Amino acid sequence: MRSSSRGPAPGHASMRPMPATLLIRHGESESNAGLPTYGPGAAPLTALGRAQAATIAESFTAPPSLLVVSPFLRARETAAPTRARFPSVPCEEWPVQEFTYLGALHGPGTSIEQRRPHAAAYWARADPSLVLGGDGESFTALIARARAFLDRLSTLPDDATVAVFTHRIFLLAVTWTLDTGTTTPDSPAMRAFHHYAESTPTPNACIRPLALPTANRTHP
Fold first, then answer.
1. Is the dihedral of CA 195, 197, 203, 204 positive or negative?
2. What does pTM read for this prediction?
3. Which residue ranges form the domains of the chain, and what is each CATH number?
4. Which Pfam families match (predicted)?
5. CA-CA distance, 210 to 20, in Å (whole number)?
6. What kind and span of H or E run contains 145?
């Protein structure tokens, strides 16, 4: 069901052709494994995560045109084997980092289990403009960042292939906003996204091709 929020304006990225794009979630991080972390971007990969990163690199049957990587450590470590396999492929850092909605609660020494009740309260409140301080980001800002990512993709050549090393919630924000057309989320839209995120399997090291909604495709 399409959200009641305002849809894309004519000429937006979702209405234009985009290059073939793979959205790749990082491998298992220490945070995913339940260990304490020291800031939203600092968690490194586990041994399993490093093995998953190597498998991702081996899965490419041809070099992509461009590698895009999040500034967060776990995404950069996931991209490293692919970069090593294709050293001549350009690699650019884009703002495709994870949604950091708990602000200061992502601080030193907290685990995912310690943050879980705060995360539940955040999503239950469903306030798209809420910022919890520190490095916190509002849900509205997340969707704006996802739309900006789609806009930037749409400026690349149609025949390019792009591999994007990113994170679970950002990946889902991109696919959800592209599918629903949501640009300015209200509270019901935020609740709809949370349901979508909770019900859509997105395991570590998953690779998801980005596809335009059928209605927006350019047909020959």
1. negative
2. 0.89
3. 21-210 (3.40.50.1240)
4. His_Phos_1
5. 7
6. helix 139-154
